[in-house]
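Hi P.,

Sorry for the delay on this. The queue was packed all week, but I finally got your sequence through. Input first:
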Amino acid sequence: MKSTEPKVDKADNNKKKGKSKLNFFLVFLICWLIVVTGFIAWFLLRFRDFAAAYEAKYQDSLPYHTAEAVTQHFNDHDVDYILENMTSEASVTAFEDKSVVKEYVTDMINGKNFVYVETDSSREDEPEYYIKTDDDYLVARFELTEDKSVSLPYGFKAWELESLEFYTAASYSVNISAPETYKVFVNGVELTENNMVGEVVPSELNQYVDPYAVIPGTATYQVKGLYKKPVVTAADYLGNSCECIYDLQNDSYTVNFVKDFGEREELEEFAISFASTFANYISQDAANYALDKYFPSGSQALSYIKRNSSRDLYTRHGSVSIHNEEIKDCIVFSEDVVYMEVYVEQWMQMYWGSDEPEVLPTDAHVYFVKINGRWLVGGIQY
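Then the structure:
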């Protein structure tokens, strides 16, 4: 009996099998490509995010951010920050205290704008910067170091201030000359021998009081390393305040001897009496020994006056009188030595000429010394 089922062609079957295999591979290939493409896209997106985050963290870790923060304190005129972070305190002398440094820094930064610039010696692991004004005036230098207390991603370093040097310049100095017996003060602090320049210079005026007394010499002082112009004061040999004269051209102070003392009125009377007697003695209107009471015993100055031959040749005249007595100057060297410039006018009636008297001025420069509690003439400066 013959089968009624249709015959299947083997060639057709093989073709169908091949097509199925091809379709499966194609589908697999497409799917694989899709997966790979998706992965690559995902990876690129993730890498882009990573790179962006990495770059952002890297930029944030650069030391210039810390440098900007330090400089901002200068622009904020934050004096306390500067003083607290200075590596070494600015040294001050015994004539100033630390408050003067704060005043100095305040004056230096007030009203100014600041920028930072990297120094030539700056290194990647040790950043170093200058702080300067807009007009290139350097005021400070600072260094940064790694801040190990802060952990940043990707092994980046955090930075902190390591050292700060503010360029302080204690540029003021003061030169003072004063009598050696006087006390001199700079900002209220007394100067000592350690502040002296050289030795005490003896007074050339001692020739007028020798051997009865000594006029104090001149001491010269110098103080350096001050942050501001100082206040200079002085006290005389009795402790009384006295004047300090400032010479702008020489940038120096001079303390002169005082011109007043408790016995001045008494000595002025004695000085005028001496000058009047001296004038009359020279004109032979006073006795030969009229001047003796004004001088110490054995005075060389008195002997010079008595040997003055011009007295013997003085013109004959009539009556004389003393007028217009005046103390033109007074310098108190010590309790025992006083100089006075004494002026008197001798009105002399002459035997010839006008009826008006001749006016003969006497301007005596006299150095008085006190011996055993009594004022006497030590010498006369001609």
